[in-house]
Structure formats: C-alpha cells, structure tokens
Write a structure and sequence with these properties.
alpha/beta; 7-stranded mixed sheet; globular; disordered N terminus
C-alpha cells in the first residue's frame, strides 16, 4: 500500500493486464522486465504504433502506462485511447505531472492517474524505489489501488501527492540540480588556465554531472521548460547567491547544514554512549 493511506491493493491475479506504451524505451523496458519477473500480466507496444498493434496490446487491459518522451506524449496518448476498454486506468511516468495529467484528462474520459518513478532505468539491486502517485480525474480508491499494487509488485514504494506539489518539488530537486550544474560548468568552460588547479572535489562534481550535462542534456532541458515552477526555483536560488555576494556565508552554511543534522545528532549520540561506556570501565 502507499505511504499516505491504508488502501489495500488487489492481488496480482485480480488486477488484470497492464500495457506499457513505449515498451522499448529505457524506462518502459525496465517496467516490462520487472513485471515479467514478478509474474504479472503485461503487454507492450512500441513504434510504429499502428492501430492494429495498439488494438492487440490494449485488448482487455486494466491499465495503460504511457512511457514516451514529452514531445510526442499528446500524439501517442491520442492514438492509444481509442483502443482501451472504457474502465481502463490511463497512467504515465513522466517527470512532470501537471501538464501530462491535463493532456490525459482531455483525451480520456475514464480514470487517470499520474506516476513518477523517482529512479532511473538501471537502479541498484538494493536501492529504494519510490514512486510518486498523483490522482487525476475519475480516479477512485480502486484505481489508485490498481496503480499502487502494480508498482508494489515491482518492488517499489509508492506515496500519494498532488500534481502541483510534485512539480514544485521536482523544480527544486531535479531541475535546479540540472540548471545550477549547467550554469557552473558553462561559466568555467574554455578556461584552460584553470586546469592545473583542479581539485578532487571538483573532479567528483565533474564526474557526477557528466551524464546529465552530455547524454541527458536534452531530456533535462525539456523537463526544465515543461515544469511551470522551474523559473520560480531559479529566482529563489538567485536569492541565495545574493546572500553569498553580500558575504553572508555563515548564514548559508547554517541553512545548508539542515541536510546533515540527523547524521550529526546520531554522531553526537554515539559519542555520548561511547563516553559513558568508557566511564564505566
């Protein structure tokens, strides 16, 4: 069940078939693979998405999950909907939720549920696999249970949120990570005189940003532009830079320390325990 409620998910055999649209993409293929490993009823369809192929894949489906890029999302969803059973749940996995939900609700009269797996197509074997669930129109408890049950069987942890709250969070977490790294490395680009001064911490950041700013740059650029809250997040970040320019570094350090306060508290507790044990010796 999801973190936010006590809803009971239906057993796998009772949930019916799920069809993955975009089954040969990285995320679609991962969902197919994990669903097959879990013994779920699963079907897939990928380009060319002919009416015949869609009709065959969608026949008897309880849920369809759209796993295609934002640029073709509307077109693909419009092609899929005529082939779905009237009661089927239409879902997606895009990294923004407000716009895709509006698109799906415009094209599908049945239940709509947005999802966002907060991990990539090749997670570590023991990784936490959170999935945000955002209810759309006509999505009742039974439809949410269907979606949550599917991801739970894949080994994921689901939680409910709104599309707006999701997009506000992703603007600050995903999009700001991209745009600040992009601006930082763009600022330093072409300055050969800096190369002798590179430190291990710089190289770690460079290594961490490489894939995002090269192979996945177009993907993240599209996500930044598709999220209505991205520019507000940039404005908030600019306020932090203004504090740095004004010399308020201690204030920034104090604020940033929030991310590690739990670890510091645990460390202090362990130190106190060790001191008590030593005192008893």
């Amino acid at each position: 069940m999801g973190e936010s409620g006590t809803r009971q998910t239906a057993p796998a055999h009772a949930r019916g078939k799920t069809v993955i649209i975009g089954s040969q993409g990285r995320m679609g293929a991962m969902l197919i693979q994990r669903a097959q490993a879990a013994g779920l009823a699963i079907a897939g369809a990928d380009v060319p998405l002919t009416p015949e192929k869609l009709a065959d894949a969608c026949a008897g489906a309880a849920m369809a999950i759209i796993c295609v890029p934002a640029a073709v999302f509307d077109e693909v969803t419009a092609a899929v909907c005529p082939h779905l059973p009237p009661a089927a749940v239409l879902a997606d996995i895009t990294s923004v939720k407000e716009q895709p939900l509006r698109q799906m609700e415009r094209l599908w009269a049945g239940p709509v549920v947005g999802t966002h797996p907060l991990f990539g197509p090749n997670p570590e074997a023991d990784a936490d696999l959170p999935v945000a669930i955002t209810p759309g129109h006509h999505a009742g408890p039974e439809h949410l249970a269907l979606v949550e049950g599917f991801f739970a069987d894949l080994g994921c942890r689901t939680f409910l949120t709104s599309a707006e709250k999701h997009d506000q969070a992703m603007a600050r977490i995903q999009n700001m990570n991209f745009i600040t790294s992009l601006a930082y490395f763009a600022l330093l680009a072409g300055q050969d005189d800096l190369l002798p001064f590179l430190t291990p911490s710089f190289r770690r950041r460079q290594h961490a940003a490489r894939k995002m700013l090269t192979e996945d740059a177009r993907l993240f650029s599209g996500l930044f532009e598709a999220n209505a809250h991205s520019h507000e997040a940039v404005r908030q970040y600019r306020q932090m830079l203004n504090l740095a320019a004004a010399g308020d570094i201690d204030l920034l350090c104090e604020r940033a320390g929030w991310w590690w306060q739990e670890a510091e508290s645990e460390g202090e507790h362990e130190a106190e325990s060790a001191g008590r044990r030593k005192g008893r010796m």
